[in-house]
Amino acid sequence: MCRLLGIVASEPTEFGLVLTQAPRCLATLSREHPDGWGIAIHDPEAAASSGSWDLYKGTERAGEDVRFHEIAARSRGHVLVAHIRQKTVGPTLLENTHPFSRDGWVFAHNGTVQATDYLRERSSAGRLAEIAGQTDSELLFAYLLTRLDERGLSRLDGEASRQAATETIAAVTAELREARIGAFNFLLSDGVTCFAHRCGRSLFLLELTPSDPVRERRSVAPGTDVVTKWTPQRHAVFVASEKITDEPWTELPEGTFMRIERLPTPRIVSGTERAA
């Protein structure tokens, strides 16, 4: 098992709260998920100078890793995809830590894929050659990219391509559930669109809108307030393996596939719930 966390926000957001401060932040959860960590941050305002994603990884237990805490303290952007690992396939190595990154996409997985031959036989030689580690997760990433490649959707540049990618991945996840490949919760994002899927592991949703009455300070646990530095215009969608804070998270049903868009404001564009 692992733990996933994704955030899509309407303005630059400091992510330290969910990484190191909240009651069930990733640093705390790493006591049970000790085999490495990864943080991918997308900041479109800095894209011209530093690339679309800043990706940081480590093989230590996140809560005990000074570097994790240093990066969390300065982390800031519009999109976050973060992961802490409890290894099931592949040793504790940097190349086996999530998120994985390829061609502007980042991918993080929670679960164990049993039917790896099913994925390998249906993945392109080019995508298989890009795999650097030994995990079932990176193989699943290669398979999803193969399916996007087949439809010319390696990069998305407009609503038509984003809708086509949504339809493609919705069909792929349904096929994989039907094939019973194993547990495969995941987050897949290009920094504008974020796809989330639940199969075999827990997944929760939290949406904060400008109508949220709390602004500068938010209660994340009984008797605990934190300064969030959010403006009244901020809108954000959170997806996580667990309820990170004591706010009103909603558990997503098994078989849920969801598309979250960052522009013009973060919103859930489409979602499906299907039998596992």
Explain this structure.
This protein is α+β, with helices and mostly antiparallel strands and 276 residues long. It is built from eight helices and 15 strands. The protein has helices at residues 16-21, 26-29, 47-50, 66-74, 116-121, 125-129, 136-150, 159-179; strands at 2-14, 37-42, 53-58, 76-85, 100-102, 105-110, 185-189, 193-197, 204-208, 217-221, 224-227, 236-240, 250-251, 256-261, 267-273. The strands form three sheets. The protein has a seven-stranded antiparallel β-sheet. Strands 5-6-7-8-14-15 form a six-stranded antiparallel β-sheet.
Question: What is the topological layout?
Answer:
Blueprint: E1 2-14, H1 16-21, H2 26-29, E2 37-42, H3 47-50, E3 53-58, H4 66-74, E4 76-85, E5 100-102, E6 105-110, H5 116-121, H6 125-129, H7 136-150, H8 159-179, E7 185-189, E8 193-197, E9 204-208, E10 217-221, E11 224-227, E12 236-240, E13 250-251, E14 256-261, E15 267-273
Antiparallel strand pairs: 1-4, 1-12, 2-3, 2-4, 5-6, 6-7, 7-8, 8-14, 9-12, 9-13, 10-11, 14-15
